[in-house]
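User: Teach me something about this protein's shape.
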Amino acid sequence: MAVSVEFEPHRFRTAARHYLAGRPAYAPRLIELVARGVGLAAKDRVLDLGCGPGMLAGAFEPLVGEVLAVDPEPEMLRIAEAEYGGGGRIVFRQGSSFDLSPAWGRFRLVTMGRSFHWMDRAETLRRLDAMIEPGGAVALFDSTMLDLPENGWSTEYRAVVRRYASADTNHVRHRGPEWVRHEAFLLDSAFNAVEQVSVIERRTVSVQQLVDRALSRSSTAPDRLGDAAPRLAEEIEVAMRPLAMDGILPEVVATSALLGRRGG
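Assistant: First, the predicted structure itself:
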């Protein structure tokens, strides 16, 4: 089965400041469903691997005794600590899936939010088998815009972003002919009892948030675009403003978690 990518620890360095503003947040109800399904308790530990700016670490912190938030990019960790570090139960560590070690301790739950596809997925799951306690789980979080009339504006938005997306030869594209879905890796791992939990919500998104969303992607991050970054922002504004009301657009988002437990 194909390995996802060549490791580039700083590919999100300039995208980091746009991530919290632009990426869809995970539904609080989704966090509750995952926590209940895994049986999280106040004594438990959670590992948020590839934590980015801390969205999942911050969401799970009130539910457990400790969250270890790990990311290879110092700027992501700086933002995460500034946003979510006040509670005192999140430990921030620079590192990646290649650094996984039983020396980090045992965890009830390991979360990954839009990060698993950047890893050697088979090897990551193999290492996690030695770190996740009996009854624990892996949860792969994602978000999807549904094909509904309220999201009609997204066709033009995606077309604009695609025109600026840089060629990324180190990443096997989603939906490309060589891409293998996460489910296949889970089914081939120790965590082969697989299920999906999803929450669908009506929301709103501003045109400025859509600019941030584009700049939060690795293929359209400011350092990859260089002088073209302001032009991308302007094109998004020009395309989206006529479709928006007072700069706001409707959005229907499904946030989901793919859960893998040991099948026994």
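Now, about its shape. Strands lie at 45-49, 66-71, 90-94, 107-113, 132-145, 193-206, 248-261. DSSP finds ten helices and seven strands in the chain. If you'd like, I can walk through any region in more detail.
User: That's plenty for now, thanks!
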